[in-house]
Design a protein that fits this description.
About 65% of the residues lie in helices and about 0% in strands. By secondary structure, it is an all-alpha fold. It is built from eleven helices and no strands.
Amino acid sequence: MATSPGRPALTRARVLRAALDLVDREGADALTMRRLGRELGVEAMSLYGYVESKEDLVEGVVELIFGEMPLVGPGPEPWQERIRRHAGIYRSVLLSHPNAVRLVAGRPLVTEGTAAYVDSAVCELRAIGLDVETADRVLGVIASFTLGHVSEQTGAGRRTSSPGDVLDLSRFPDLAEVENLGKMTPARYDAEFELGLDFIVAGVEGLLAIDAATREGGGVSGGADDVGAAGGA
């Protein structure tokens, strides 16, 4: 099947954009080479001139999503606010592509665009005083928390029942009080996300404080391992 008259010529960028649009509309399970070919008006085999495989296609879609976020870098505000700001941007981008969240969560970041973003984030975390291993751990915590929170928020919209619909909540009085708060709203999800970031930022502040105290005491910082030792003391 040739490209239909009047359709723009195929490019890798156009194939990836069509793939992301398809996921946004119909979900990740709809993303097959055959379905994408129909979307673009070509045979599925024609797509292999622009992507090497289904895996390459998915990695390209994830790279498109990461391309919607600015690289992490120095700014005028304190580092605590920069962490909150960039995590908030990540969340906003994921919320704009809820059907792609599991694609983002399930892919190694092996493309130029995703690598550039991760590199900039690790660089920023190291610039505030974390060693490279701890910076990587902190970035993983931020990413996992954000992905999980977005998954919870977007999945909630597909639920058809609540605990009170199927359980006798008189047996679970604390859960009953939670249910009395009513359904989660975007504003409540926002507040929950900000609370989680408060915990993360406080944890990073604790890591830096322990490192500073170790240096002042003449010891050698062990990064995150020192925190574990201090917690067990």
